[in-house]
Amino acid sequence: MGTKRHKPEDVVAKLRQADVLIAQGQSVADVIRVPDLWNAIRQALAYFTAEDCRNSLTAAGYETDLAVAT
Description:
- The chain is built from four helices and no strands.
- The protein is mostly helical and 70 residues long.
- It is globular and about 35 Å long.
- The mean pLDDT is 77.
């Protein structure tokens, strides 16, 4: 049985749901147990290349040698 593929909109909805739950006072430990949240995150990360990650980390102020995504 394969893993369900989430559309990008579904991934964003799951992350927003997690934000709302945290804002309502739920602990992060409880929120990370939201069904399919980690699968959605894993699939979202697959959309980014190593170069995308490196550029994002560099733009966020991390040193280039720390932003190696290999």
